[in-house]
Amino acid sequence: MAVAHGSRDPRAAAVAEALLHRVRLARPGLDVRVSYLDHVRPALTEALAPLAEAVVVPLLLTAAYHSKVDIPGALAGIGARVEVSPTLGPDPLLTAALERRLAEAGTAVGDPGTAVVLVSAGSSDPTANTTVRRIARDWARARPWWAVTTAFASASRPRPAEAVAMLRAAGAPRVVVAPYLLAPGFFADKVAREALAAGADLVADSLGPAPELVRIVLDRYDAAAAAAGRLECLRA
Predict the structure, then answer these.
(1) Are 21 and 51 in contact (CB under 8 A)?
(2) Do both 127 and 177 map to the same domain?
């Protein structure tokens, strides 16, 4: 049971469906379903209602309010036996997916003349924002980019336009933006608009149903299913 954030923008649900379609193709025979925390049906509780057991995989890129509060709250009254996996991020495969999107947009991966702004939605949970900053630091160490810095579409600073302007002022020859966002929608549109207006050379697409995300979803499912099996053995 994948659970996505949910959005009024239909493009977001389309990405969730496309990602899970690829998961089904990669693992024939696995019952793969989708639910949402907000705006779109079925809700998580609604989708779980007919099931006796399930592994819930949050389609979220960082552990924050939705994974720490919303999902446990939704599961509090559920009769099904449920194991919840960690969020999709952080994971080295997400950096590979970011590089895929930058390459598709025309950026040579690791180009020493290119500075990267890693942009997430931002969170009121400071640990989630710290996680994004750590991803940027690790990415900068792994590749010879001119620089890798972070920005946030909401809830924290700097904003994408501020990060682009700071890199330009520091002398970056080229500035590109890598959205740490699962799907197009309000934040993705806002990031692209503000970053380009501030002088970014390009903004890559959101992560979408990239092959790396398919692998992460299955990795999270496998680990959680194994944990549920071990727990059941202990109970027996």
Answers:
(1) no
(2) yes
